[in-house]
Every structure is written in C-alpha cells, then in structure tokens.
Design goal:
Blueprint: E1 13-17, H1 22-33, E2 37-42, H2 45-54, E3 62-66, H3 74-86, E4 91-94, H4 109-137, E5 141-146, H5 160-180, E6 185-192, H6 211-222, H7 232-243, E7 254-257
Parallel strand pairs: 1-2, 1-4, 2-3, 4-5, 5-6, 6-7
Helix pairs in contact: 1-7, 3-4, 4-5
Amino acid sequence: MGTWGPFDLTGKNTIVTGGAMGIGFGIVTRFVEGGANVLIADLDEAVAAKAAATLAAGPGKVHSMHADMAQPDMGERIVDRCVEAFGSLGVLVNNAGIYPVVPMLQMTVEQFDKVYAVNLRGLAFATKAAAQQMVRQGTGGKIINIASVDAFRPSMVGLAAYDASKGGVVMFTKNLALELAPHRITINAIAPGGITTEGTKRLAGGRPLTPEEQEQMTKAAMARMPMGMGVPDDIAKAAVFLASSASDYMTGTTVIVDGGFLLT
C-alpha cells in the first residue's frame, strides 16, 4: 500500500453508515482498496451483506450489520460492533441520510421528524459514540460527515426539511471540531453536488421515477452543473483524503465537491 503515500488507509478501522449503496458504497470501496477495515452499517441488511461479500478480497476486511440510524442507541451499537470486529475505531463516516421530496406546505410532523432523526440526530449521536470510543483509545481519530450543497443553496422545491438538516450538519461539524481538537480527533464534512445514485432515481415515499420524470430531472440538474452529474467515486476520493494523514491539520471544514454547481 506504499503507493498511496499520505493517503494510505492501511489498518484504519472504519464505520460507514449507509454504506451498502450509492455514495456510501463508493466510500467503502475506496477505503477497502486503501487498506482500511470497514463496517458497513446500513438499514438494508441483505444489501449490506452483499456489498461486504463483493469486497471480501480486500486488502481491507469488511463486515456488515443492520443499522437504523433513527434509533437513539444505534450510534453506540455500531461502535461496539466495529470494536468487536476489528479491535478499535479510527474513522467514522456519517453517510446515512434520507431526502423525501415533500413541499413544506404538505409535510407532516412525522415526515419532518424522520428526516431529522436520520440526517442530524442520528449523525450527532453516532458521532458522540465514536468520539467517546476514540477518547478512550487515546489515539485520535477522524470523523467525516456527508452534508450537501443544499446546506448552502436550495436545489429544488420540496427539500426544505432536508436542506435544513444538512445545514445543521455543517454547523454541527464546525462546533464539534472545537470540542474534539484537544483529543486529536478531526471532524470535517463533504458537501456533494448532484451524484448519480440509486437514491436519486426515487421521489417522495420511495416512488420510482418514471422515465419521463427521470429525463426531466436530469436535464434540469445538468443545466445547473458546469461539469455535469458526478459519480459516487468523486465523493469517495474526497473521503479518502479526509480519513488519511493528508488532512491531519484540517478540522471543522466542509469540502464542496459539486462540479461547479454553486458557481451557477
């Protein structure tokens, strides 16, 4: 793994929430390639297990588990499972998130609360559990939060709750960086732009897009993206940087990976 230089992840024991598909799986794939041992914590246990089997050849080891990040104790459970599997925890990637497209005037309290339970509260308490473990270990650590360009500018009607939750992720990252710095734990975020994933092919309530809706959404998105739509690996490579020694003097920062979306 010497060719990875300062980006080498050999021996870094990692949790990736929502790691079975899309951006999460892209991150898991690059981390395992870089030598990290990864626990895939995902709501879909079967898909997570399949993803782990796909990457079984290494060089890093891969385990999987069912994880509903809306559950209050899930942060502690995924940390315990990582330590059980690999012996310690060095990196947490908070990738799990939901984005039902529901205009605020039609949104229910239950829908709003579910977005926050996963996107912000789940992330916050997974971070708490991970940071507590890292402090006990006394060897520092890395926490990476997946935010969104929607934390800085809304991309479409119907994402008010999602956008606000991701704005919260950006500020949570900044504040907690102050708290964790004395323990040599860095916490940074990545704000993806338009990334082609399984999730972007669905609308509110999980209804699949019709071919016509998919074409219309893609055209509208492409018109605002100077470099077009991205792919999960675009985010994964930024995550490798933030998990590696290359970013040791960075904390509280949000890295924007959007193909120029915020420029338009």
